[in-house]
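W.,

You were right to be curious about this one. When I first looked at the sequence I had no strong expectations either way, so I just let the prediction run and decided to look at it fresh. Below is the sequence, 76 residues in total, followed by the output.
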Amino acid sequence: MEYLTSIEAAEKWGISRRRVTVLCNEGRVKGAVLKGKTWLIPAKNEKPQELKRGVKPTKKKGSVGNGKERRTASSQ
């Protein structure tokens, strides 16, 4: 099996070496092996899909704040 280093994979995928390392550390690159301080990635691998963040929930109408309401000069 042929392997690429994280630098070679970064060039192939169009991302930084650091991002490849993070993806490997997170276990998102199938077949990646850490050899000393170098990640070896199977040459046939494609770039992992980026995870999409979910939509953050919005406050419901009529909900009360966290109790730390801002005081203005006129309300003191």
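Here's what jumped out at me. The first helix runs from residue 6 to 13. And, maybe more interesting for your project: The beta strands are 3-5, 33-35, 38-42.

Coffee later to discuss?

I.
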